[in-house]
Amino acid sequence: MSASIAVVGAGPTGTCLVERICANAADLLGWPSLDVHVIDPHPPGGGRVWRRDQPELLWMNSAAADVTLFTDESVRCEGPIRPGPTLAEWLGGDPGTFASRPAQNGYLSHVFRHAVETAPRGVRVHVHPARAVDLADIPDGQAVRLEDGRTIEVDAVILAQGHGDVTPNGEERALADLAVRGGLRYLPTGYAADLDLDGIPAGEPVIVRGMGLAFVDLMVLLTSGRGGRFVREYDGELVYLPGGREPLLHVGSRRGVPYHSKTGYPFGGARPPVPRFLTREALGEGPWNFRRDVWPLVAKELAFAYYHELLTAHPERARLDWAAFAEAFADEEWRSPGIRKLIRTAVPRHLDRLDLDRLDRPLAGIRFGDRAGLQKWMHGYLAADLERRADPAHSADHALILGLISVYGVLAELGVSDPWFHGFFSYIASGPPGPRLEELRALARAGVVTFLGADLKVDHHDGRWRAQSPTVPGGVTATTLVEARLPAPSVSRATDPLIGALRDRGELDEKSGLVNVRAADRRLVDRSGTPHSRRFAFGPWVVGGQATGGFARPRLNAPLFRHADALARIVLSEAVGTQIRRHVA
After folding, report:
1. Do you find a cis peptide bond into 12, omega within 30 degrees of 0?
2. What is the pTM for the complete model shown?
3. Helices 295-313 and 337-346: angle between axes, nearest 10 degrees
4. Is residue 386 a contact partner of residue 437, using CB atoms and an 8 Å limit?
5. What is the sign, positive or negative, of the torsion defined by CA atoms of 41, 44, 46, 51?
6. Which residue in 13, 112, 103 sits closest to 51, CA to CA?
7. CA distances from 10 to 39, 159, 160, 280, 489 (A)
């Protein structure tokens, strides 16, 4: 009797699960006769988001050396370690390069093929290029219905669709209605590669709300993607030569500044000794208020990581050695007078001290008399960010990023999520490659991009969109408004037909916009709070799965691998192994 598992979703999340299922099958099933059904309308490996048919102009936001989908010796999991190349090793190029999205698709396709080709004897992987639209209980299993009318019967199902689309929220619907009635253009949230940008007119002002990674993609497609070119002047300055078809982008956001660029130097320091303070014991019993209960411990972890690198790698800029600092630091509460005094004593230069508030909101409290003053400040801000992120003298910034990654994983395992912290994490640790910010600076000097400031508000006034910010007086108007943001997770507004069917019947529950699962084993929880014995969910849209989004960094014991391995073993030993033992008996 063959056991069977359905994995719904063939992107990076589903691919990692398939690899872990194959890797663990022989150990847990004894005599593996297992069919793994992978269901996705897009080719396996890249899935929809990382599909091949995207412009080469769109890059990954991580250096090739920092991307892997193979386990390594750092991963602490029960299953076997199956090493493989990082993206940089697979490409055979510069480890610091930022690969194109189509190139990443090739790597992900390779990982999927490798998992299938190296699966133990008796394990068969079947790819179904179709969408799963419903799921039903049957005796001793599950029936997955596909959009082409076929039904696949399996012992267990894992939902691994990754980032999904949602219907517009109330504000977006209202803006879309205003656009239709007033003859305006409005592009809601979404992946830039999926948006229809042809309707954005050349030479006209366009209001863009959002300055994260979605904005960077939009910026590239509307400038280089329309025939513009970047050239390097004799003094090394990057200059933009317009192609004549680009719009005039007026951009702002809550912070009013773009995400920090990736560090552009190899990090040679020791990994920060975190987490140390952020523990379940320190948090106590929930529920927790993030800013009151969790953030002080998170901030202390981040500062510990930052100052560990500063004092050990750059001791000439400190008045205390690390051992003395660490001992005193551990005894103090975050934001206490004692910890502030310790930092002032240990780190004489204000430039070397970590100011998390200023880092989060660099424009807070700043007002300019006119738009020109803001543009001048932004040019200096971007230049300083590029210079600092390229200088290993500021390697404490890289240690802060590593601390953020560690903390993010701990919070996911504790089941703690917070939208503000996710945004802060992305802003510091998931920014664009340095060259992209250099291009943004060149576009601003060329007048193609104009910065609007922080706390941007957009409304409808005199038949046009109007954008205003308290950072600078006045405002701008345009006939086109673009939301340069990805949609926030929302089970209630998900367009995925399978999620919708389960949700509408109450067989799937939502928690803070995410698919609710039982933390111990990721079993799908219905609206009554009851976990299902044969249904599981995994990935960034799942409670506790935020740290499994994106790609793993090599040699950092990535949560993606640990969690995928644990889930694969649970499904094989409990949902599937029980079925095999019943048939054998």
Report:
1. no
2. 0.92
3. 20
4. yes
5. negative
6. 103
7. 7, 10, 8, 34, 19
Cβ-based neighbours of 530, under 8 Å, separated by 6 or more: none
Q: Is the peptide bond before 275 cis (omega within 30 degrees of 0)?
A: yes
Structure tokens at 2: 């063959």
Which pair of tokens denotes residue 241? 């030569």
Report d(CA 516, CA 427) in Å as an integer.
Answer: 26
Q: How many helices (H) and strands (E) does the chain have?
A: 17, 21
Burial class of residue 229, CB neighbours in 10 A (0-12, 13-18, 19+): exposed
Contact 61, 85 (CB under 8 A): no
Angle at 379 between CA 375 and CA 385, to 5 degrees: 140
pLDDT averaged over 10-residue windows placed end to end, the chain, 585 residues: 91 96 90 90 94 93 94 96 97 92 97 96 95 96 97 97 89 94 94 90 96 96 97 94 97 97 87 89 86 95 97 96 96 95 96 96 96 97 96 96 90 84 93 95 98 96 95 96 92 96 96 91 96 95 80 89 95 71 39
Relative orientation angle of helices 419-429 and 395-414, to the nearest 10 degrees:
150
Query: Which residues are CB-neighbours of 520 under 8 A, at least 6 positions away?
Result: none
**CA-based nearest residue to 398, from 326, 314, 516:** 314
- Identify which of 398, 92, 441 has the alpha carbon closest to the alpha carbon of residue 264: 398
